[in-house]
């Protein structure tokens, strides 16, 4: 069975009474427990989730569900504020911080009756591309425990532990991607500043949508880079992403960077004709280090569109290779500003230092932030120094315009959608990943995803095929600003063609019996 | 060499975070080296871009009070408070100079 078959049919099941919202919630909670070794969840909100599920059940019994999302369990990356629930950003700086409010996106889902299961793990303050650098430890890619991966692993000598084989989820929204990939929830929120939703989506075999900047409210999303951050949506299929997008998009008076145009939620057509489409293949995305496997898949995908009658042409985005450098400067500069709020006075960690305000701030920040965060703050401050401002910060802003203009030119020339790889390779084993430092890794891994954030464009990663190692590989579509409907329609068509296989997760139960998890058995 | 001890000290003061060790300093040096690639790009006549939404008007709402009165919630997360005040240690005391404070940079 392909992953696409099991979409929000669970919604229909709830409506028809084949499963109750409480049962569904309990099954997800139980699965979260049995997949605890993935370390995807930082906080599980068991009590409130069950309460929400009960309320949903009452509504279904009255025949008055709030909508398609009523009773649907979802998870949220731990950098979104959730009222009454700890929000840590996987940092000591916010350990114990209980949000006094819900981020707008969280509130919107709750208003639709969706059930919040818990908060997911990430790189500290969303800085990283592996979901390995948070205080709760790394997230494990569920595919590490799939039959598909295990079958392809080289035969081991008796003493070798399969423990050392597990691969990363990618990041920084790795917990959310793993949560969706392992069936513990039907949708999860991530954030995307340089690729943080699309990268783990590709590695975990799920759909990762980065909406246009300004479409979805950032109110309550603890900011990294205000001019690039967006909430991201992770689901198992494109139709589900469209449903979630429908409930989240639109102007928020609490976020002045959301556009004021009225957003019309849409349903994606089932019959899609790609003949009128023009697909652009940006040649610069054939980046150094791109695996030959992914290159081949990318090429195959282009052929798929061509064979279906679409126009497929090579295009150029000449400033692509500077995107990562540009991002590095702008990101660290905005981070330096955004992290200044953490001083121990109003919330979060506070050091036991009372000599002076400054020394208390310094001690608090010394104790609260990890190396990665401190490193970015210091770099950012460097680029913002008077003597460097023009040469680095302003320069980067100019390069940003060049990058954004590259896209404008290509879309103006008649291209509707760009097709690119999402990552350079399939997921690497954790032991390999940690050999390089965070900044180097981020610079390598964000290369294909970052430019879309620079230009504010919508982009989506679709699980395409399994690699030689039995791990997911995703391909990315980048669309025009605010043209999510077209983007998702093309993505859905592609998803239907590739029929990405369902993960055959092998999870040991408490009683030590091994069972195969099939979504059809558990949820419908 | 742009990244002198004076600059590093200045950054620690501005950022109120520390480099901590040689690795931290090296991290900055590498970051600057990486960023220097920007200078390869010709940006003659190009305006800096602040926001991708620069062609639109920022939303401004009416100057009406719509929420507030949440003192209790806001104070919940503070460690040190007295009545309705956040308590801070004395201000206007600058961070000790390089020679006087405990910092890795002293040994540079």
Automatic annotation (TrEMBL), chain A:
HAMAP family for this protein: GatA (MF_00120)
Gene3D superfamilies documented for this protein: Amidase signature (AS) domain (3.90.1300.10)
The protein, known as: GATA amidotransferase
Annotated GO biological process: glutaminyl-tRNAGln biosynthesis via transamidation; mitochondrial translation
Region (Disordered) location: 147-168
Molecular functions (GO terms): ATP binding; glutaminyl-tRNA synthase (glutamine-hydrolyzing) activity; transferase activity
GO cellular component: glutamyl-tRNA(Gln) amidotransferase complex; mitochondrion
Domain Amidase, first and last residues per copy: 37-488
Lineage: Eukaryota, Metazoa, Chordata, Craniata, Vertebrata
InterPro entries given in the database record: Amidase, Amidase_dom, AS_sf, GatA
From TrEMBL, chain B:
Biological process terms in GO annotation: glutaminyl-tRNAGln biosynthesis via transamidation; mitochondrial translation; regulation of translational fidelity
SUPFAM superfamilies: Glu-tRNAGln amidotransferase C subunit (SSF141000)
One Pfam family cited in the UniProt record for this chain: GatC
InterPro entries from the UniProt entry: Asp/Glu-ADT_sf_sub_c, GatC
GO CC annotations on file: glutamyl-tRNA(Gln) amidotransferase complex; mitochondrion
Keyword field: Transferase
UniProt GO molecular function: transferase activity
PANTHER family assigned to the protein according to its UniProt record, in alphabetical order: GLUTAMYL-TRNA(GLN) AMIDOTRANSFERASE SUBUNIT C, MITOCHONDRIAL
The protein, known as: GATC amidotransferase
Source species of the chain: Casuarius casuarius
Lineage start: Eukaryota, Metazoa, Chordata, Craniata, Vertebrata
Gene giving rise to this polypeptide: Gatc
């Amino acid at each position: 069975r392909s992953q696409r078959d099991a979409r929000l049919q669970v919604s229909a099941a709830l409506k028809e009474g084949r499963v109750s919202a409480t049962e569904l919630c309990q099954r997800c909670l139980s699965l979260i427990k049995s997949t605890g070794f993935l370390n995807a969840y930082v906080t599980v909100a068991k009590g409130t989730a069950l309460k929400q599920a009960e309320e949903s059940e009452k509504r279904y019994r009255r025949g008055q569900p709030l909508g398609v999302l009523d009773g649907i369990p979802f998870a949220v990356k731990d950098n979104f504020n959730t009222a009454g629930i700890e929000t840590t950003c996987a940092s000591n700086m916010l350990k114990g911080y209980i949000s006094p409010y819900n981020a707008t996106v969280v509130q919107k889902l709750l208003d639709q009756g969706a059930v919040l299961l818990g908060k997911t793990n990430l790189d500290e303050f969303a800085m990283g591309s592996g979901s390995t650098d948070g205080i709760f430890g790394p997230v494990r890619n569920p595919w590490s425990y799939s039959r598909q991966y295990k079958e392809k692993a080289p035969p081991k000598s008796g003493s070798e532990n399969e423990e050392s084989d597990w691969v990363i989820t990618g990041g920084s929204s790795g917990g959310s991607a793993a949560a969706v990939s392992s069936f513990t929830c039907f949708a999860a929120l991530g954030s995307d500043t340089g690729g943080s939703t699309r990268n783990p989506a590709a590695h975990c075999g799920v759909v990762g949508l980065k909406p246009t900047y300004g479409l979805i409210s950032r109110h309550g999303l603890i900011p990294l880079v205000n001019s690039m951050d967006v909430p991201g949506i992770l689901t198992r299929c494109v139709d589900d992403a469209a449903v979630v997008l429908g409930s989240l998009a639109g102007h928020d008076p609490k976020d002045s960077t959301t556009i004021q145009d009225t957003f019309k939620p849409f349903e994606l057509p089932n019959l899609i004709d790609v003949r009128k489409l023009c697909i652009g293949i940006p040649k610069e995305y054939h980046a150094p280090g791109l695996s030959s496997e992914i290159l081949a898949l990318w090429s195959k995908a282009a052929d798929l569109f061509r064979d279906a009658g679409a126009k497929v042409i090579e295009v150029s985005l000449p400033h692509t290779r500077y995107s990562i450098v540009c991002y590095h400067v702008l990101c660290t500069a905005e981070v330096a500003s955004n992290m200044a709020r953490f001083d121990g006075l109003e919330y979060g960690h506070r050091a036991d230092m009372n000599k002076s305000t400054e020394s208390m701030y310094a001690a608090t920040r010394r104790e609260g932030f990890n190396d990665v965060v401190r490193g970015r703050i210091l770099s950012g401050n460097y680029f913002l120094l008077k003597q460097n401002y023009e040469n680095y910060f302003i320069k980067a802003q100019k390069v940003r315009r060049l990058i954004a203009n590259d896209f404008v030119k290509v879309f103006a020339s008649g291209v509707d959608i760009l097709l690119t790889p999402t990552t350079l390779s399939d997921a690497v084993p954790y032991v390999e990943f940690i050999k390089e430092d965070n900044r180097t890794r981020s610079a390598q891994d964000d290369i294909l995803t970052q430019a879309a954030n620079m230009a504010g464009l919508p982009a989506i990663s679709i699980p395409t095929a399994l690699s030689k190692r039995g791990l997911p590989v995703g391909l990315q579509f980048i669309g025009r600003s605010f043209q999510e409907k077209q983007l998702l329609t093309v993505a859905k068509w592609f998803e239907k063609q590739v029929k990405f296989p369902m993960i055959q997760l092998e999870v040991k139960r408490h009683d030590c019996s091994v069972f195969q998890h099939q979504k059809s058995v558990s949820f419908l | 060499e742009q990244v002198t001890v004076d600059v590093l000290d200045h950054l620690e003061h501005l950022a109120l975070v520390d480099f901590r060790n040689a690795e931290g300093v090296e991290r900055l040096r590498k970051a600057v080296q990486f960023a220097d690639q920007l200078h390869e790009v010709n940006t003659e006549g190009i305006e800096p871009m602040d926001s991708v939404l620069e062609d639109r008007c920022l939303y401004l709402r009416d100057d009406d009070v719509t929420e507030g009165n949440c003192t209790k919630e806001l104070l919940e997360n503070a460690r040190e408070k007295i009545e309705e005040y956040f308590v801070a240690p004395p201000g206007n005391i600058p961070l000790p100079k390089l020679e006087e404070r405990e910092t890795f940079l002293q040994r540079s």
